[in-house]
Amino acid sequence: MRANIKRNGQRRVVIVGGGLGGLKLASSLRDTDYQVVLVDKNNYNQFPPLIYQVASAGLEPSNIAFPFRRLFQNRKNFFFRMAEVQRIDTEEKAILTSIGTIHYDDLVLAAGATTNFFGNKNIEASALSMKTVGEAMRLRNTILQNLERAETEDDEVKRQRLLTIAIVGGGPSGVEIAGALAEMRRTIIPRDYPDLNASEMHIYLINAGPRLLGAMDEKSSHKAEKALKELGVEIIADCRVTDYQNHSLILEDGDFIHAETVIWVSGIKANRIEGIPVESIGHGGRILTDSFNRVKGMTNVYAIGDQCLVEGDEAYPQGHPQLAQVALQQAANVARNLIAAGRGRSARPFVYRNPGTMATIGRKKAVVEIGKLKFGGFFAWLLWLVVHLRSILGVRNKTVVFLNWMWNYFNYKQSLRLILKAES
């Protein structure tokens, strides 16, 4: 097979991964002298901050995803190939993919990260992750199917297990999905499932650290914890999960949580690509780079976003946080440096400017940190809505999400709780 991309005399930049960073880089190189080739295993970009809303039946997958080809219509210097990258051949200056070989002049790795199960095979086989739209759909189907099964289950033990959801991980993803499910229990279960007792539905949030949202200020953590407890979420702090067997989550203190649904949002690891030198891989599988995002020990190869770890930044000795803003800023800087190189100008090192952190907990509940400003509640929730609405791709998607949020705010009567599975 062949990738079928003709050389046209332009210098070719191949981008592996069309997440927020990869897409930002491709967009920044529009109308330049570079030929841009974007390679991704999916034909769409997804918006990770709202994946939990798909998982909790708050939004449809199409609301937070947008096809690459639609984004780059009528761009003569842009090519998209849907493929999985198998390895990098530095001698040939090419990537080997599931559709053939693609040569590059400059290669940018932006393939992101995947869920880290820390080697626990039982948890990996049984727990549900929430990194992609596909995983969110699987989680949504599981939750809704378990509710249907619980409504007709006569065995009390089995019914309780079906109605128990354990979320492992107290970061923003864990807090947000816990809040969304608690809101569902409060507003949806009594109306849609009248034969179920909503009080029998238990939502546990288990965190290995002493407090939730460990990357945020202690005050914000306490606000988030208080808001979740008000919603009825049962928080277990300072406790690790060791295994999952026979529908039971096993905690390190010896306790069990009998749950049919386990949501694992406890950590991530960089997606691995063969052909990168072993000495260029850091902790969490992240690719080591210099301050210009150039991969250690490789020529004309860059890495950005969750997949990379910039060495030498005294402010972030363990690497920059694996957040969307880091990927976007690194992408913009790499694009600027590539354009500068084509014009004979010097490169600029990457310096991360933290725009702030936020997490939503539920209806009218969120926490926000912007510099020294830290606040929560209704106005934090409104700011969270505005920031995320602005970041969604496509006018149609922005409009649909906005109307969906407003409709849900006033009457909670979404009609998105469909169990959709592809026929085999």
TrEMBL record:
Report the GO molecular function annotations: NADH dehydrogenase (quinone) (non-electrogenic) activity
Q: Which residues form the External alternative NADH-ubiquinone oxidoreductase-like C-terminal domain?
A: 356-409
Q: What is its EC number?
A: 1.6.5.9
Q: Does the keyword Electron transport apply?
A: no
Q: Which InterPro entries match?
A: FAD/NAD-bd_sf, FAD/NAD-binding_dom, NDH-2, NDH2-like_C
Q: Which residues form the FAD/NAD(P)-binding domain?
A: 12-331
* Pfam families xref list: NDH2_C, Pyr_redox_2
Xref: SUPFAM superfamilies: FAD/NAD(P)-binding domain
Q: Which UniProt keywords are listed?
A: FAD, Flavoprotein, NAD, Oxidoreductase, Transit peptide
Catalysed reaction per UniProt? a quinone + NADH + H(+) = a quinol + NAD(+)
Q: Which Gene3D superfamilies match?
A: 3.50.50.100
Which superkingdom is the protein from?
A: Bacteria
Q: Which family does it belong to?
A: Belongs to the NADH dehydrogenase family.
Which PANTHER family does the UniProt record give? Answer: EXTERNAL NADH-UBIQUINONE OXIDOREDUCTASE 1, MITOCHONDRIAL-RELATED, NADH DEHYDROGENASE
Output this protein's name. Answer: NADH:ubiquinone reductase (non-electrogenic)
* Source organism of this protein record: Segatella maculosa OT 289
